[in-house]
Automatic annotation (TrEMBL):
Gene3D superfamilies in the record: P-loop containing nucleotide triphosphate hydrolases (3.40.50.300)
Protein name (Swiss-Prot/TrEMBL): Vacuolar protein sorting-associated protein 21
Record SUPFAM superfamilies: P-loop containing nucleoside triphosphate hydrolases
Gene name, Swiss-Prot/TrEMBL: VPS21_3
Pfam families: Ras (PF00071)
Keyword list, A-Z: Nucleotide-binding
Record-linked InterPro entries: P-loop_NTPase, Small_GTP-bd, Small_GTPase
PROSITE patterns named among the record's database cross-references: RAB (PS51419), RAS (PS51421), RHO (PS51420)
Bias kind Polar residues: ranges: 207-223
Length: 243
């Protein structure tokens, strides 16, 4: 069995590769919001580790992860705060979306009520968050709308409670990035974060924001954000670009 490798040999392509490799990452704070059980943690786990856990417990408070997204002319290092969806944690949300450059608001396409909650989050962000924040509205669990063997058309339609066209119209009217995704099979996940990376006004990210990646205060101790994982252990997150 033979294999072939495609190698870029022209000078411009090689220069682009060299520039990309030497580009210093731009830190961008990103927060995930949405009702409980819509798949926020699964979405970010797919993006960061290209993994999916069928039985994942609820997030308590918030989890922190990082991932780089490499574009043609820049590298965005997302500092991701995955917040809990339970109502009792709602009051903590401003602490996480404060000074964020981006927010991903997630709903479950099989539960219309989760979209109502997502719209409430979007209004709150538009009212209280960074005025230049990039907001992505993401309808998760798209895999549940894909027919499996034996499904009838009626059964498939009954699964979806939120119509794509309606949400797309709302997103366009509200100036939002919009995607439907499946954390389970990875559909649309990288595309969401790639589009966000493209739209973040990096020239407006202040020097103080870029310095945030060094360390943050957590009570009486300080932890290096680059070494912080979702379970609180000091283990490097996946540095491979998932975009």
């Amino acid at each position: 069995m033979t294999s072939s490798t495609s190698i870029l040999t022209d000078e411009s392509s090689m220069a682009a590769i060299h520039t990309s490799a030497d580009t210093k990452p731009i830190q961008a704070k990103l927060v995930l919001l949405g009702e409980a059980a819509v798949g926020k943690s699964s979405l970010v786990l797919r993006f960061v580790n290209n993994d999916f856990q069928e039985k994942k417990g609820p997030t308590i408070g918030a989890a922190f992860l990082t991932q780089k997204c490499r574009l043609e002319d820049k590298v965005i290092k997302f500092e991701i705060w995955d917040t809990a969806g339970q109502e009792r944690f709602h009051s903590l949300a401003p602490m996480y979306y404060r000074n964020a450059q981006a927010a991903v608001v997630v709903y479950d396409i099989t539960k219309a009520i989760s979209l109502d909650k997502a719209k409430i989050w979007i209004k709150e962000l538009q009212r209280q968050a960074n005025p230049n924040i990039v907001i992505a509205l993401v309808g998760n669990k798209a895999d549940l709308t894909v027919p499996s063997e034996g499904d009838t058309k009626e059964e498939l339609n009954a699964t979806r409670e939120v119509l794509t066209e309606e949400v797309e119209a709302y997103a366009n009217e509200s100036g939002l990035v919009f995607f439907e995704t499946s954390a389970k099979n990875g559909h649309g996940v990288n595309e969401v974060f790639t589009q966000i990376a493209k739209e973040i006004p990096t020239e407006q990210i202040s020097a103080s924001t870029r310095l945030r990646s060094g360390s943050v205060s957590t009570g009486n101790s300080r932890v290096n954000l680059d070494d912080r994982t979702s379970n609180g252990t000091t283990n490097k997150t996946n540095s491979k670009c998932a975009c």
